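Sequence design from tokenized structure. All designs in this work follow the same two-part layout: the structure record, then the generated sequence. An example of the structure record is given first.
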């Protein structure tokens, strides 16, 4: 889906997931993925909370509970058409199991699956390292997967230590491009209502930038449009109801 397809306006039908709760002022949805920031009427909520107009106590069986609400967006809130049980839409990163390199003869070496890789930024840059992650093909095995801008330099630096448990892939993005994306997101933290941003690793060992935010706004679309596909994953907490054309 194109990021522009995630923009919505007043009166559009939208879907949102979050923790639903009620107080004397009404029924509210808090889509925060990070955690609550303050207590209001005895209920912890984040600054992303918005009202569910037309919701009733019948919509809330246990509070706060994760629900999915669908309806019309108006007056900075959601006019409810339907509320159903729903899970956290972004429960966490993908499980990194099978390394993107051929399995050595005899299988991946068994070792401590909870190893910690400790290299400072200068050492990583010298070795051409863009991103590192541990894949776990078995419960008791760990493989260091490195996305590298200079495969030969990375091999020279890490192969003596990691041996057959090292998997090096050519990085799709440079460290500077990833850092530039993160800096731009941080610069717009408030006006784009961003809650969290960082980097994730896909099943091919490639890093990409990710951002969780309340909704996608046109200014963000204009900035993100020139970015190459796959560099940025956008996770809006409120999005237009998918149509047959957008699926």
């Amino acid at each position: 889906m194109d990021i522009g397809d995630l923009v919505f306006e007043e009166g559009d039908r939208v879907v949102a997931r979050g923790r639903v709760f009620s107080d004397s002022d009404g029924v509210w949805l808090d889509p925060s993925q990070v955690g609550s920031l303050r207590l209001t009427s005895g209920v912890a909520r984040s600054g992303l909370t918005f009202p569910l107009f037309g919701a009733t106590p019948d919509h809330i069986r246990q509070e706060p509970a994760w629900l999915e609400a669908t309806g019309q967006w108006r007056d900075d809130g959601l006019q409810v058409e339907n509320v159903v049980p729903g899970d956290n839409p972004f429960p966490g990163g993908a499980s990194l199991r099978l390394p993107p390199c051929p399995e050595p003869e005899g299988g991946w070496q068994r070792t401590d699956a909870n190893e910690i890789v400790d290299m400072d930024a200068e050492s990583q840059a010298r070795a051409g390292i863009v991103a590192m992650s541990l894949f776990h093909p078995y419960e008791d095995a760990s493989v260091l997967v490195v996305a590298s801008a200079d495969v030969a330099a990375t091999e020279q630096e890490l192969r003596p230590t990691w041996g057959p448990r090292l998997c090096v892939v050519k990085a799709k993005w440079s460290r500077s491009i990833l850092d530039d994306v993160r800096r731009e997101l941080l610069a717009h933290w408030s006006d784009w209502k961003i809650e969290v941003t960082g980097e994730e690793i896909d099943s091919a060992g490639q890093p990409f930038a990710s951002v969780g935010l309340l909704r996608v706004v046109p200014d963000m679309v204009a900035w993100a449009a020139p970015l190459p596909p796959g560099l940025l994953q956008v996770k809006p907490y409120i999005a237009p109801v998918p149509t047959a054309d957008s699926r």
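The mean pLDDT is 87. We note this feature because it recurs in several other targets discussed in the main text.
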